[in-house]
Write a structure and sequence with these properties.
The protein is of the alpha/beta class. The chain has 9 helices and 8 strands.
């Protein structure tokens, strides 16, 4: 697939490529990405398109403004899924959830995350990158699941225990604890803390350094370094998503059309 075929297709991403380095800036209506059913539906297709383009040699993933992804969800009422879902809707979300992370991991180029601020929703999108750069204002939290009365089965049940250690990862999921930029560096989630104004510049410099390698070295290094992640996701992601959808049956039914 050529860049011209998908560059302007997506409502939640601005795509630009220079010298084989693709920058993908996530957003909602030109501002910080606000997670919901729209991004959940679109981003799997975005990652699939990026993965299908052989000319993408390095990918930079970042957010817009001073937030990587939001908003914070702290209860069922602030979740993007406040009600019990019909079977067809639950099946669609389960399918999209699997494609979201598997398509991200299928990108055949090193991925650099430039986390420009708090990543409070789906922070695994950044944390699954090969190099994670964080602004001083960055934070990580899985606010959308257990704090919102949802099972943390959207891949977070794989990512946090894998990156933080089994016990610490489970505790962070069950408490909703927020991880600061400094803590992310100490815990091994981040590679560097970069002043906010220099974050994208640093990501571009690292991308240029990586892009000096041959195509085969780049692609095969990415394949090797993501194989363990792919295997764990293949084994556990669908199971976690199924339990997450099943637990939603405890939620109230949606209001009847035209009702109050």
């Amino acid at each position: 697939m050529e860049l011209t075929e998908y560059q302007h297709r997506f409502e939640h991403a601005v795509l630009e490529r220079r010298a084989g380095i693709l920058e993908s800036r996530l957003h909602s209506d030109g501002g910080p990405l606000q997670w919901g059913l729209g991004p959940h539906r679109e981003l799997p297709d975005l990652f699939a398109a990026v993965a299908s383009d052989y000319a993408n040699r390095v990918v930079i993933l970042t957010g817009t403004g001073n937030v990587f992804s939001g908003p914070v969800a702290s209860s069922a009422s602030t979740s993007s899924i406040p009600y019990r879902l019909p079977l067809a809707a639950a099946d669609r979300i389960l399918w999209e959830g699997k494609q979201l992370l598997m398509n991200l991991l299928s990108i055949n180029a090193p991925v650099i995350a430039a986390v420009n601020g708090p990543a409070m929703r789906h922070c695994e999108l950044a944390l699954l990158s090969d190099i994670v750069l964080v602004a001083a204002t960055a934070q990580f939290q899985d606010s959308a699941h257990f704090p919102s009365d949802m099972v943390p089965g959207d891949g977070m049940h794989v990512v946090f225990p894998l990156l933080l250690g089994a016990n610490r990862g489970r505790a962070y999921l069950l408490t909703g604890k927020t991880i600061s930029a400094e803590e992310a560096l100490q815990l091994g989630l981040a590679f560097e803390i970069v002043p906010d104004a220099q974050l994208l510049q640093r990501a571009r410099a690292l991308a240029t350094e990586l892009a000096s390698r041959s195509d085969l070295v780049l692609r095969y290094s990415r394949a090797m370094l993501t194989e363990q992640l792919k295997r764990q996701m293949q084994d556990l992601l669908g199971y976690g998503l199924a339990l997450e959808m099943l637990a939603l049956q405890d939620r109230p039914a949606p209001p009847a059309a035209g009702g109050r």
